[in-house]
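pasting input
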Amino acid sequence: MQSFETLDGKRHQDIRIKTGHGENFGENVHCVPVVANELNQLAVHYPVCFLKDTETGQFGLYALLGFEPNQNLYIKSGQWGQDYLPLHIQRQPFIYQINTNSTGLNLAINVDSPRIDNQLGEALFLDDQQPSDYLQKMAKLVEFLQSSLASNQNFIQTLLNIDLIEPSQLQFQQADGQTKKIDGLYQVSRQQLASLSEQSIINLHKTGALQACYLLLASQENFKKLINWYKS
Amino acid sequence: MNNAISSVIIVGGGNAGWITAAILARKLKNKCAGQVSISLIESPNIKTIGVGEGTWPSMRRTLKSIGVSETEFIKSCNATFKQGAKFVGWVSGAKNDAYYHPLMLAGEDEQFNTLHAWHHQAQPQQGAFSKAFCVQDYICELGLAPKSITTPEYASVSNYAYHLDAGLFTDFIKKHCVEKLGVKLLTDDVIEVKASVENTISAVVTKENGLVSGDLFIDCTGFKRLLINKHYQIPFKSCKTILSADSAIACQVDYANTDQAIASTTISTAQSAGWIWDIGLQNRRGVGYVFASDYLSDSDAQAQLASYINNTAGNATNCTFKTIKFEPGHLSKFWHKNCVAIGLSAGFLEPLEASALLLIEMSANTLAEHFPANQSAMQLVADKFNQTFLYRWQRIIDFLKLHYILNQRHEPFWQDIKQAQSIPQSLQNQLELWRYQYPCVHDFEQAIEVFPLDSYLYILYGMGFKTDYPFNVSKQQQDLFLAQCSDIQLQLDHLINTLEPNRKLIEKIKKFGLQKI
C-alpha cells in the first residue's frame, strides 16, 4: 500500500524508519527497476535486463531477482543479504517530490510503508525539527536516483535508436526435467554492438552508454547463480 | 545499359499509384542497384476515389517492407485493427443469423484432420464452425484488440489487418515515397500519350512539364484507364452476371461518443438487394450500401442505409451520402506492351473481402519480383503477369460469389444471385466436389492463392454447408478434435486476461507507441 505525504518537520516529527531488508518489507518481488548509473555495483550481483512495462509497452531497466511472481531468490531466511541493494530498494519509504516547506528536502514519505514505526529505527528529525543525518543521507540518495532516471530514459532511447536492444529468451532445465522458458527479456545485442561504426562507438562512449552495454552483458553471468538457487 | 528498363513512370496518384511506387522503389533499390528511377505524375485537379478502407494482413508485411513505423501509420491514418469480417443476415436474415470469417488460420497443417469430427457432431450450429477452429470469434465479440502494447510493431497475438482512412493513407504513403524512398513526384495533368512505331509508349505529354518519357508506364488512373484503355483499348470483362451489385452509397458516421467501442471486424449486414459495410476507424465509422440497381433504386437504398445507421447508434441526418456507380469486372489483360494497369484501372469488385488494396499489393509485388530487365524481357514477363492475374481475379470472383450462393433469403436479388447459370463453372465444380469430400489445399491450383483454404472453410461451413463424407470419424480424429476444443478454451482464457479493448490499445499506441522489437 502507498500513501505519500510531503515530508514535514512538524507532522512527521515522531516517525522512525526501520532499516532492514527482506520479506517483512514487501521486498519479495521478482524484479526491481534500476538505473544505468548503478550498473557498476549491480552487475556483480544481479542479472540486469530490459523489460517492457505491461501498461505502456515502454522499456525499463530491471534487475531480475526470481522467475516466479513474488519470488526474490536473494532473500534467504527472510533477509536480503546482498552487499549492494538497488537504489529503488534503498530509497524506501521515500520518493522524490519538490518540497517548498521548511525541511528544505525534496522528499515525500509513504506513510503506509511497513517501515514506519514510532519507537524503533532511525529518527527523521532532531528535536529542533532539523533533518537527522539519516534523513539527509536518504535525501541525497533520492536526488541521485531522480536525476539518474532522466538519463536512464535517454540511455534506453539511444540504444533503441541504433537497434542495439534485442529480445533474449532464457531457458533452462528445472529440477523435474521440464524446460522453463522466460519470455519478455531484452538484452544488448552482442552482434549489433560488435558491428557499430567507429563514430557510433565514440558517441556511445562519450555518454557512458558503451560501458553500460558491456556491464549489462557481463551481468548476465548472474543468471547462472539465480538458476541454481531456483532449482535448489 | 542500352535498352535496360531504367525509368518507371506511374500515372495517377491514388492508393494504387503510391503503394505501387513504394513497393517498386523499395524492392528495386537492391535488385537494380538504384539504377531504376521511379516517377509519379499526380494530377492537382483529380480527387482520388479512395476505395477500400479495409486491408488484408498482407498490408502489415507491405508496410514493414517499405520501412514505415506501424505506430506512425496508426497515428497518421486513423487506422484500427481488423480481425476479419462478421456476416450478419447472409443465410436466412433471421434474428441470430451471423457468422465470422476470422483472419486466424483454422488449422495448423494442411490436412484439417478434425474437420470431419466437427462436421459429424450431432447438429453443428450455424456460425459454430469458426468458433470450433479458432479463438478469434470470441475476441471479436468481446471487442478486444489483436495484440497488446508490449507486442512489437507488426507482430500479432491474433492475426490482424487494418481498417484505415483511404485518403489519409494515400497522403501517408506519398510522404514516405517522396521523403524516404526517392520517388520523384510530378504534380501535373497527363493530356496525351506518345507511342513509338511498335506502339510502345515512349512518353506522356503533361500540361505544364511537357514530355515525360520512360521505359515502363503504370496506369493508376482509376476508372479513366488513360493508358490501358484510352490508348491501348484493352477490353473490359464485366462479371455483372455473376456479381450483380453495381452501385454503392457511402457515408461517414460519427461515433455516438468518444468512448464508443471500435469494432474489431468489418461488419457486413445483408439487405434486400445487397449488403452494408460498417468499418470502425478511430474517429468515425465508414458505412456504405453495396447494391444491385436492377433490384433497388438509389433513393430506396439510401433509405435502407439511413435506417441501418439510425439502428446502430448513428445519426443519419448528419451524414452526407455519396453514390458510386461501377461495372464489376476486370480488364482482359493487365499488361500490354510497356504498360501495366494496377488498381481500379485493372478492375473493380464489390469490397466484400477487401480485395482492392490486396490486389494492388500483389500486383506491385509481382511486378517488382519479375521486373523486366530490358525491352526484350518485357513480353515474356507480361505474359506471365497476365496469366497470374487473370487467374487471381477469377479466384476472387469465385470466392465473392461463394458468399452469395448458399443463402436462403427470399428477396429476388438473393434468389437470382444463386441461380446455377450465374455461377462460374470452376466454382460449381468445387462445390460439387465439396458435397462429397472436405476441401483441401490440393483443390487449389496455385501456390499463391489470393484467399487461403481456411477462408473457403469459414464461408462454406459458416453458412451451414453440408458435406456427405461416407466414412466414420476415426478414434484418432475424435481425440484430436476434443484436444482442439480444450486448447481453444485454454487460449481464450489466457487472451481474455491479456488483451485490451480495441480503442484502449489504439489510444495507448498513440500515447506511448509500439516498440520495433
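fyi Chain A has one domain: 4-231.
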